[in-house]
Predict the structure.
Amino acid sequence: MTKTGKLFGVGVGPGDPELLTMKAVRVIKTADVIFTAASSKNAYSLAVEIAAPYISTDVPVNILSFPMTKDVRTVENAWVENARIIADTLKKGLNAAFLTLGDPMTYSTFGYILKKMNCVMPGAKIETIPGITSFHAASARLNRILVEGEESLLVTSGAFGGDRIRNVDGVENVAIVKAYKNIKDINQALKDAGLYNKSVAVAKCGRDREEIIHDICELENREPDYWTLILASK
Ligand SMILES: C[S@@+](CC[C@H](N)C(=O)[O-])C[C@H]1O[C@@H](n2cnc3c(N)ncnc32)[C@H](O)[C@@H]1O
């Protein structure tokens, strides 16, 4: 009987190819197959581009597509299908590295894969290699303390605007990822929560055309880049 392979969920960090862990690099270099996910509208994978210096030329790179739709059943089916493709690879005794931006456990497509692997291949060997998140990279880029002493940090999504920020109490610092739409509402919520004055946005941190936007009001006059986050503090 063939020994099954192992799935590694690998965080490739926020963009700088030097911001991968040594473990991530070793796993990528030794994987038999590379997987990543991309929207069905666009087969391009930034995660693969970041990890490219470490991917052997003879290793297959398999970009799994997922639909950009709110139809839950369509999305669920796509992830089950993607997990099956990975499971088939493991059943051949091959080791697979699923590359994901930043950290695999933080707003990542690897989360879907993990859940679906439990359905399609219960007991599969899986190891997650953590990565540097976008907001840790941004705070380092700015030499700005993310959280200290007994303070709290709220990490949240801005995709639906500022409600998550308005409704919290006792939080001194926030990191808002997906701050690319509803920016007016995010800004208003930061003002309401007393977090606006010490806010800064970072777009494409550590990548070409990186931007640091100290006056986040500016974001209201343009369509912010998808790769935009905001750090704010009391
Ligand atoms: C789906 S989440 C992925 C988060 C990622 N797993 C992490 O650990 O940071 C995508 C959001 O992360 C943020 N992001 C990821 N990389 C970034 C970068 N290099 N610069 C700024 N924001 C980034 C943006 O807010 C983007 O909308």
